Amino acid sequence: MQTVSVVGLGIMGKALAQTLLGAGYSVTVWNRTIGKATELVSNGASLADSVDVAVDTSDTTLFCISSHQDTLSLLNEVEIPLEGKSIIELSSGAPEDACKLVSQINSKGGRCLVGMILGYPIDIGSDRSSITTAGNKSLWRDSQRMLKALAKNLTYISVDPKALSIMFSALFVSRQGYLFGMVYGALLFEKAGLPVQSYLDMLPQLNPVLEDYLEVVRKSIGSETYSNPQASLETIHDAFKDALDPYKALDIERDFPDLMSKIVARAISAGYGDEQMTAILKVLR
Ligand SMILES: NC(=O)c1ccc[n+]([C@@H]2O[C@H](COP(=O)([O-])OP(=O)(O)OC[C@H]3O[C@@H](n4cnc5c(N)ncnc54)[C@H](OP(=O)(O)O)[C@@H]3O)[C@@H](O)[C@H]2O)c1
Questions:
Q1: Ligand 1: does its nearest atom lie under 6 Å from the Cβ of 120?
Q2: Residue 233 CB less than 6 A away from ligand 1
Q3: Which position among 13, 101, 173, 253 has the lowest Cβ density within 10 Å, counted as fewest Cβ atoms?
Q4: Whole-model pTM?
Q5: Ligand 1 in reach of 236 Cβ (< 6 A)
Q6: Where are the domain boundaries for CATH 1.10.1040.10 in the chain?
Q7: Does residue 36 line the site of ligand 1, with CB under 6 A?
Q8: Among 170, 137, 172, which residue's Cα sits nearest to residue 155?
Q9: Whole-angstrom distance between the N-terminal and C-terminal Cα of the chain?
Q10: Ligand 1 contacts CB of residue 61 (under 6 A)
Q11: Rounded CA gap, 63 and 72, in Å?
């Protein structure tokens, strides 16, 4: 079984180390503030007294500290050669720092995979968490079993570590779109003098519709097929008119729904009125 070190025992690093211990891995830990290792050591982890020792002891070292920049600084201080060593960077940070990190590790003879954790520390080890990775593909192959112990949903996107920031942005924009929509719905209820709670109580009823949307997005964009919609762009455009009317009547902020409606109108003008809602992609390109 792969031996693993975990560098960084903040709330996330601790969850990673504890989950690996629970999965039967031999785990070595290091943290700048040593006291944070006590509980893990009493649960069976070995304590390294330096990052050098942590990296040297195990086949693979997971870094989970504040940022790529901090990982870069720690690795700058590492004196041992990294030949035969694998580093998986699970801290977040700027894409250019992820690239620097990969180059730095490669130049010392090691392999590097950069990963983005989606989920809270409490989700680690469950099917609620996911880890998306980019970087060294052979390390990805060799680490799948260990990473699967941490997150049931694993993805490898590209050798280029910058791909992770693209994935982050795409997922962030997706979920913020939904969040913004819900806030605009609450605003309308509030301004209409209606009980906002009755709107909030209805929101879970949208779940089946959202699942349908997910299927539409995956199928249509995945195959570039936008014909035979359940609801055409023309239909959605009419619905937008109805949906925007109360905002106009109450003269309240509607920048976000207006913007959506305008994009739909552009797609209709471009000749996609009888296609899927997702055909807006063609006018956004
Ligand atoms: N928490 C989450 O929900 C979550 C989710 C996904 C991804 N992440 C990512 O996981 C990483 C860790 O997050 P966290 O929630 O565990 O944060 P945290 O609880 O604040 O822990 C930060 C960790 O980084 C260490 N650290 C900070 N600066 C350092 C430096 N210059 N040198 C050495 N160690 C340093 C801290 O050491 P000390 O103990 O000595 O201060 C601590 O171990 C972050 O990059 C975060 O974006 C977190």
A1: yes
A2: no
A3: 173
A4: 0.88
A5: no
A6: 192-284
A7: yes
A8: 137
A9: 47
A10: no
A11: 10
Strands in the chain per DSSP E = 4-7, 27-30, 46-47, 60-63, 86-89, 111-118, 130-135, 153-158
How remote is the CA of residue 99 from the centroid of ligand 1, in Å? 20
Q: What CATH fold (topology level) applies to the domain 3-159?
A: Rossmann fold (3.40.50)
127-164 residue pLDDT tens: 999 999 999 999 999 999 999 999 999 999 999 999 99
Range(s) of the chain covered by CATH 3.40.50.720: 3-159
Name the residue of 19, 30, 32 whose CB sits within 8 Å of the most ligand 1 atoms, as the mutation to test its pocket: 32
Backbone phi, psi, residue 88, to 5°? -115, 115
> What is the 127 CA–ligand 1 centroid distance (Å)?
22
Residues in the chain: 285
Give the nearest ligand 1 atom to 65 CA: 24
Dig out the tokens for 96 from the structure. Answer: 């250019």
| Contact of 186 with 248, CB cutoff 8 Å | no
| pLDDT band per the 50, 70, 90 thresholds, residue 2 | confident
3-state secondary structure 83-119: CCCEEEECCCCCHHHHHHHHHHHHHCCCEEEEEEEEC
- The CATH topology of domain 192-284 is N-(1-d-carboxylethyl)-l-norvaline Dehydrogenase; domain 2 (1.10.1040)
